[in-house]
Amino acid sequence: MKIFLKKNEERRLLSGHLWIFSNEILRTEDFTENGSVSELFTSNGKFLGKGFYNKDSLIAYRHLTNSNIEIDKKFFAERIRFSYTLREKLLSHNSAFRVVNSESDFLPGLIIDKYSDAYSVQIFSLGMQNYIEIIKEILVEEYSANQVVEKNDFEYRTLEGLSRKTSILFGNEEETKVKIKIDAIEYFVDILKGQKTGFYLDQNENRFNLRKYISSGDSVLDLFCNDGGFSLNAAIAGAKEITAVDSSEIALKNLEDNFKLNKLYSYSVINADVFDFLKSKSESRYDVVVLDPPSLTKSKKNILNALQGYFELNKNSMELIKNGGYLFTYSCSHHIAEKDFIEVLRKSARKASKNIRIIGFSNCSNDHPLNPSMPETKYLKGVILKIN
Ligand code: SAH
């Protein structure tokens, strides 16, 4: 089929963005099936490339290529290989990494995470869903996957008219716990029941970076710890007393299993709401605090509430840090701009009567590349603060 854009609506695409919104389309020709591959043209008929069309989605078109090539198994195999090669070069010392990061790897709506020989796939678009079998075949044939799961139980899919489901596409149906190794630390990951695709891979580099700020014997508070990535890196670096807080009992159980797996024991867990936990504490007794909350807003409407939430969390965390200590603080809310997050940190410090110095900024790990033409691909913002 063919899509013709309204006059000048190709500009964003030509700047590198991969989406066309429904109101930018003038007309379509030869429509066959929703989700199918379509050719894209300017208003006066100049060919722009090919991509997925979904007439029921606000993001009506997702661009795949500027060329007039077949979108088939060979196309996907090449794109996946291109992405895999980058990770292999950067992260061959790890057994787990993000193989494909959707738009940033020019495969819009597709995420593939590798957990040793198991692969977890997430699909955000109707067009991409049609290729799930082919993607599974590629992972099995070319990457020797012994298990492939579809981890598609999230709200966003409904915008594309897709159902929410989690299933095993290939391999063992009984055992879904996989052992992975990242920067010399081992973890158990449940590729079917874990949060997200099983593990927060995006924080790997930041967890490793934490090590150089820890001195032997330090006390560390890991807020929103999930299955313990930051805590384990702190322990490896010599922290003596680690307190890990999360509201999920399952996450804390995983943390305990992961500590055991690495024969590390210098931790205690607290099952609590972090907002309440922070309100109940006042003594400045930690050398390092890690503050990694879930997204506090999924929409633009809630930005003010989210900023207030970040203010409360950061102010209360700063109060618990000893003079000379560090705060590793993150926001994974896509709608919160970095400059607004920094302003929240400034206000939090004033209120907590602390002097702060920003000594580092951070992003997602390098297996989560960004597409500079698509601000939508940036969500994680990290700031390292020295507290006085
Ligand atoms: N730091 C983690 C990832 C954090 S993800 C890591 O390195 O892997 C966010 C975590 O916050 C999840 O584990 C979730 O269970 C937990 N969570 C969400 N809301 C919470 C709340 N109000 N209080 C405590 N934990 C919460």
Task: Tell me briefly what this model is.
The protein has 388 residues and is α/β, with parallel strands linked by helices. The protein contains 10 helices and 20 strands. It has 3 domains: 64 residues, Archaeosine Trna-guanine Transglycosylase, Chain: A, domain 4, CATH 2.30.130; 107 residues, Transcription Regulator spoIIAA (2-Layer Sandwich), CATH 3.30.750; 188 residues, 3-Layer(aba) Sandwich (Rossmann fold).
Question: How would you describe what is shown here?
Answer:
The protein is 27% helix and 31% strand. The radius of gyration is 22 Å and the shape is globular. The protein folds into 3 domains: 2-65, Roll (Archaeosine Trna-guanine Transglycosylase, Chain: A, domain 4), CATH 2.30.130; 73-179, RNA methyltransferase domain (HRMD) like (Transcription Regulator spoIIAA, 2-Layer Sandwich); 200-387, Rossmann fold, CATH 3.40.50.150. Helix 5 packs parallel to helix 6 and helix 9 packs across helix 10. The model has no long low-confidence stretch (mean pLDDT 96). It contains 10 helices and 20 strands. Helix 9 (303-319) links the parallel strand 17 (286-291) and strand 18. With 388 residues, the chain is α/β, with parallel strands linked by helices. Bound molecules: S-adenosyl-L-homocysteine. The site of S-adenosyl-L-homocysteine has 16 residues, from helix 6 and helix 8.
